[in-house]
Design goal:
CATH superfamily: Nucleoside Triphosphate Pyrophosphohydrolase
Shape: globular
CATH topology: Nucleoside Triphosphate Pyrophosphohydrolase
Oligomer: single chain
CATH class: Alpha Beta
Number of domains: 1
Helix content: 10-25%
Length: 145
């Protein structure tokens, strides 16, 4: 007996994992804070908006406050969610939630990043950013202006 070809397509395509990630837009007048990702990790050497993964059961704004404490050693007051975006890095997707940081206590310092830099809004397109950030750069710049 021959196999019915219709049954071969009954398999659902494998769903790739999604990582929920928060990013903080920390500004000082016309400047925004970026951190350079460390060597040896994913997206090494690229400049990113500080933040990180949301832990299971954690609220996104609380996750960002925790990440900013861990990465920059600052106590941050997280503002409103400004926008969300998705990006596919091959076999992993990211859901990025961009928040504006209203206030912070402490001087940002490099606990995770190779370097921190205050970048003028107009210079953001010149920075080596991860694809997920570059794809929404127009929205980020509009928000900052």
């Amino acid at each position: 007996m021959s196999e019915n070809p219709a049954h071969k397509s009954d398999k659902k395509p494998k769903r790739h994992p999604w990582l929920p990630v928060v990013a903080g837009i920390i500004r000082r007048e016309k400047m925004v804070l970026l951190g350079q990702r460390p060597e040896g990790g994913n997206l090494a050497g690229l400049w990113e908006f500080p933040g990180g993964k949301i832990e299971l059961g954690e609220q996104p704004d609380r996750a960002l406050a925790r990440e900013l404490k861990e990465e920059l050693n600052i106590d941050a007051e997280i503002g409103q969610l400004k926008f969300a975006a998705t990006h596919n890095y091959g076999d992993v997707g990211v859901l990025l939630l961009f928040y504006e940081v209203n206030f912070w206590k402490g001087q940002p310092e490099t606990a995770h990043h190779t370097e921190l830099r205050w970048v003028h809004i107009d210079d953001l397109p010149k920075m080596a950013l991860p694809e997920a950030n570059r794809n929404v750069l127009d929205r980020i710049i509009a928000l900052l202006k």
